[in-house]
Please model this.
Amino acid sequence: MAVTGQGTEPVVDPLERAVAAAQQTEPAGWSVLADDVMRRARALRRHEQPVLADLRPDGSRTVVSTRVLTDLLRVGLTEEASYTPDDLTFVVEGERLVSVGVSLVAAFGVDLVRTADEVRARVLRELDELVPLSKASGQQVAVDVTVVDVVDGDPRRV
Amino acid sequence: MAVGSETPDDDSWGLQDATDDALVRRAKLRDEAAFRVIVDRHGPGMYRYAVRLMRGSTHDGAEVTQEALISAWKSLPTFEGRSSLRTWLFRMVHRRAADLQRHRRPVPIDDQLLSRVVRPANDNPLQDVLDGELLEALQAALDELPWLQRSCWLLKEVEGLSYAEIGEALAIPVGSVRGHLHRGRRVLAERMARWR
Model:
């Protein structure tokens, strides 16, 4: 903070002192506001599509939302330090999952083709559990992997 | 950094230390824990800016900040990173504040004026009182400034954005930022001079 004046008592510029005080100010109620934001965010629904996960002989159906697929694949694809998902997209036709698109950020220096293969295998393993009907019906879900960026370090952090 | 009660404990990847880019990647994919870190990291500055911009009203500042953060959560999947996350968030706040300003008649807010918690910078109660009075004087002076002068001054002097970042946040040219800032500084210096 700049100090001006030439007397024995230093005179601090009032505007600069006010700025310094303003920078230290935290308006009342922030923590409540932050919790409200998170509550509202959680309640929001983004665009999602139903995927038929299981169909029983009696006609009973189990449907999984692409929202659930996004959540679980995101978690599954952030276990390795060499890559992290940047985007996940789904092509669904008549409740059947046709393909999954994975945009990937990889760590600098990793073998990108091998990494894409790992990701593809991982996604298919997850889908076998999440939407077993796809496998049972013999219709392979395509997994398209696009490496959109490489970063120096663990892409989950940088 | 404040950590909300809803942040998971199993932060095995050092979420709190993750860069904004890494947090955005995860929040785009609906990772609420990552979004919570964004909220805690940038929200207090957004809220402080909104309150000052909205004439010291914590009510309006809270509304503006909340709407801006919800809008950010919705829009993150399309965030392309052309500006920094911080600048983008301040842009959201500014837009919401402008919307509220347009659609609401001014109301007396004396009882809300500068409702605040000042972090204890020192153990000097007298200094805290003086700072409180200074802040009230500053808010009164800020309220006299035209909207963009007030915005530019707050973003530069209190929030520490660069000229280019302010230009992006307010969607105005950098030259205009310099002009608004120059005029705002001059008026505020005049108004605050009596505190010497």
Q: What stands out?
A: Chain B touches chain A through 58 residues (CB under 8 Å). The longest helix of chain B spans residues 32-53. Chain B has two domains: 1-116, 119-196. Residues 163 and 178 of chain B are 7 Å apart (CA to CA).
